[in-house]
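Exercise 3.2. Students should predict the tertiary structure of the chain below and write it as structure tokens, then compare their answer with the key that follows.

Predict this chain's 3D structure.
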Amino acid sequence: MKRLSLFSLGSVLLLSVLIGCLAYVPPPVDAVYAPGPPPAPVVETVPVIPFPGAVWIGGYWGWGSSGYYWNRGYWGRPPHPGGAWVPGRWHHHPRGYYYNPGRWR
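Answer key:
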């Protein structure tokens, strides 16, 4: 009975550690940190689709020596049929805010 309890406790602890590792995504090695969160996204007017299969890649806030700057959205060509764009995101970190760029999925 005691052996089963220790095994159960050990299993729960191991599972907790593994789940914690999966939930934490470390910032990129070359991450640039901003001291505060980005402004609200700019509302963009999406132009007419330029070619069949084009995917709208929305604009985002970037960070540079002068502070935040807006990168306008644009139409992109997926690298493969049915490709979907996953937008980038700003994340909070003890060192500040860093950006994970968007990618094709």
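Discussion points: Residues 32-104 form one domain. The longest strand covers residues 60-64.
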